[in-house]
Amino acid sequence: MSDRIHTLSGYFHEYQKSVTEPEKFWARIADSFHWKKRWDKVLEWDFEGPNVKWFLNAKLNITENILERHLYTLGDKPAIIWEPNDPEEEGRTLTYRQLYHEVCRFSNVLEKKDVKKGDKVIIYMPMVPEAAIAMLACARIGAVHSVVFAGFSSNALADRIDDSKAKVVLTSDGNFRGSKTIPVKRVVDEALKSTSSVETVIVYQRTQEEVSMEPGRDHWWHELSEGVEDTHTAVETDSEDMLYILYTSGSTGKPKGVVHTCGGYMVYTKYTFENVFQYSPGDVYWCTADIGWVTGHSYIVYGPLLAGATSIMFEGIPTYPDAGRFWAIVDKYKVNQFYTAPTAIRALQAYGTDPIEPYNLDSLKTLGSVGEPINEEAWHWYHTHVGKTRCPIVDTWWQTETGGIMVSPLAGITPTKPAYATLPLPGIQLAIMDPDGKELIGNSVEGNLCIKFPWPGMLRTTYGDHERCKQTYFAAYKGMYFTGDGVKRDHDGYYRILGRVDDVINVSGHRMGTAEVENAINEHPLVIESAVVGYPHQVKGQGIYAYVICDMKNRTEQNLVNEIKDTVNKIIGPIAKPDKIQIVPGLPKTRSGKIMRRILRKVAEGSLDNMGDTSTLLDPEVVDKIINGRVE
Ligand code: 6R9
Question: Locate the AMP-binding enzyme C-terminal domain: which residues (predicted)?
Fold first, then answer.
């Protein structure tokens, strides 16, 4: 049964119901799932704790709602279509029946390795079907997966292993990425030198490169799977048992483990998938995200598969072997819904329209955008050249913490406006707050985006540190979830996300804490202090600009800059490497020792004429020195 909305008045009607009687509303949506035991109560919550529970005491297994549920009706339908990095290599299709058997087999493999309910499993893998199989196998046995983006460094991986106290790591020998191969197993080996919780490593063979295997600890995926039964009885989980941990950056310190639970997340991802994309049975859907990010979790794996959809999984990058690769894949599989990030659109826009010409893209019905604000120019390019002005664009605003899409048009139903995420989905009660903590009522207002009422897909805690969850999201505005984003509600009541208002920068749709990058820079032995800000970047949305005070020793500036970039690469990974590094004699600090980031942002973005009030600075002259040494 589908809970799809079909008309704009239907949307307003559903929205109204979701606000006046939220429990009744979500109970109705939840009714269409398979529960081993129904809930006693729909919702219990307070945003002070915070304490949020959905579908209390209900029992389920999310994979039964993906696998068993579709086995008889959709058994022969493709669940996952995999397109490899190299277009010459043959792709793979897994039907719902095949997916069922593969998940069952790997569930048995994990159980044989003594993985139990509640154990943490790190997935550090390429974009191959086995990564999705691994996630689902964990969910099936009640283990908690934590996918780590395979571009992260061994240090970053080690931090996540330590924080989650993972018992198992699932990885590959190497990854293909465009024309490169990345030695993934070596990164895992390095990370495991400094961690102690991991007992088992299972290695999926992808690139056939040589790897070292530690006897007793490391095993080949294919060897462990050989002869293992391909049926398995799903473990019963509670609605509020942990489904996964996903690490994400915040404005301070190290990444935090966002925790999602089984029942509410299941209900929310399927509901939002069907409604936002207006998925119809038989459609082919493609989200280009990596499973290392929340978009891959909710809208490659869980949402689409819960809906019985065909979900494409692509191993490669948009520009390999050429900038027409996305469009070749759209034509090859007759993709109906295509979901990508503004940074990818802008990167392809730079190649012009020639790479699109050979393809007809007739199958496309809906285009999606996620990860960062989409600028109007990119929106129009996407709309005109990819969607041929025929396909609605759903600009979907949400976060790792929200679990699923929160503000978005419903494809073909909600009238769109370039760069606007438009209206909240049913169940989502937004509030715009001014700096004094007052809610701004009415239209044509701008402020900080908060959410007033719980929704089933929301985070429950940050792993191992509930206080941090409270301080980060529930302390800024009493009784509200604070998103960290600025927003405008225009004269039509439409929402436009303006970007982060905290010290989080968004580089190519990847969230990065400025403090996190600074900490990495400071690891270089000659660095005394650093300050990192974002600046507008043509393709990436935001670039990273680092101001660094160094002891130069006998290095040239260029040498030092390269060494600092290498350090960041090693500590976090290539995505955090600063685009520009300026060696400075000092930083603009107030008398109380606070760095005035406002000034550093202005210099980075090149607006040098008006620095605002600098009278509270300890050493106002430092500003001129910084302006003079600015990196173009
Ligand atoms: C899903 C995802 C979340 C942050 C979020 C916001 C930005 C995401 C956006 C958007 C404007 C959109 N963001 N979607 N900004 N318009 N459609 O990206 O999760 O990686 O946790 O990032 O991304 O700033 O706060 P995550």
Answer: 516-594
Q: Ligand 1 pocket: which of 372, 448, 482, 498 to mutate (most atoms <8 Å of CB)?
A: 372
Per-residue confidence at 616, pLDDT binned at 50, 70, 90?
confident
> Which residues have a Cβ under 8 Å from the Cβ of 567 and sit 6 or more positions away?
520, 521, 523, 524
Long-range contacts of 260-263 (CB under 8 A, 24+ apart): 260/403, 260/457, 260/459, 260/460, 261/54, 261/460, 262/60, 262/61, 262/62, 262/139, 262/237, 262/238, 263/30, 263/39, 263/54, 263/55, 263/58, 263/60, 263/238, 263/239, 263/456
* CA 163 to mean position of chain CA atoms: 19
First to last CA, the chain: 56
From the CB of 109, is ligand 1 less than 6 Å away? no
- The pTM score is 0.95
497 lines ligand 1 (CB under 6 A): yes
* Residue that is written with structure tokens 């780590």 in the block: 148
Can you give the pLDDT at residue 614? Answer: 79
SS3 string, 527-589, reads EEEEEEEEEEECCCEEEEEEEEEECCCCCCHHHHHHHHHHHHHHHCCHHHCCCEEEECCCCCE
Backbone angles phi, psi at 511, to 5 degrees: -80, 135
Task: Give the pLDDT of residue 626.
Answer: 94
Residue owning the nearest CA to atom 3 of ligand 1: 399
- Of all atoms in ligand 1, which is nearest to the CA of residue 497? 11
pLDDT, the chain, mean:
96
Burial class (CB in 10 A: 0-12, 13-18, 19+), 339: buried
Q: Is the pLDDT of residue 2 over 80?
A: no
Query: What backbone phi and psi angles, to 5 degrees, belong to 124?
Result: -125, 80
Please report where in the chains the tokens 């650093």 appear, as a residue. 530
Stretch 262-290: mean pLDDT: 98
Q: How many CA atoms lie within 13 A of 596 on its CB side?
A: 23
* Residue whose CA lies nearest to ligand 1 atom number 17: 397
Q: Report the percentage of the chain scoring pLDDT > 90.
A: 92
Summarize pLDDT for 551-590 with one digit per residue, the tens: 988 889 999 999 999 999 999 999 999 999 999 999 998 8
Does the C-beta of 293 come closer than 6 Å to ligand 1? yes
ipTM of the complex: 1.00
Distance separating alpha carbons of residues 330 and 286, to the nearest angstrom? 8
| 257 close to ligand 1 (CB < 6 Angstrom) | no
Predicted confidence band of residue 459 (pLDDT cuts 50, 70, 90) = very high
Distances in Å between the Cα of 412 and the Cα atoms of 278, 614, 629 are 8, 50, 50
C-beta of 506 in contact with ligand 1 (< 6 A) = yes
Cβ of 511 less than 6 Å from ligand 1: yes
Query: Can you tell me which atom of ligand 1 is nearest the CA of 421?
Result: 17
Q: Please tell me if the CB atom of residue 500 comes closer than 6 angstroms to any atom of ligand 1.
A: yes
Q: How many helices (H) and strands (E) does the chain have?
A: 19, 30
DSSP conformation class of 415: P
Q: How far apart are CA 632 and CA 620, in angstroms?
A: 22
Residue nearest ligand 1's atom 5 by CA: 399
Q: Encode burial over 522-551: b for 16+ CB neighbours within 10 A, e otherwise.
A: bebeebebbbbbbbebebbbbbbbbbbebe
Question: What value does the CA radius of gyration of the chain take, rounded to a whole number of Å?
Answer: 24
Is 341 buried (19+), middle (13-18) or exposed (0-12) by CB count in 10 A?
buried
Cα of 447 vs centre of ligand 1, distance in Å, is 17
Rounded to an integer, what distance in angstroms lies between the CA atom of residue 200 and that of residue 192? Answer: 11
Largest CA distance in the chain: 74
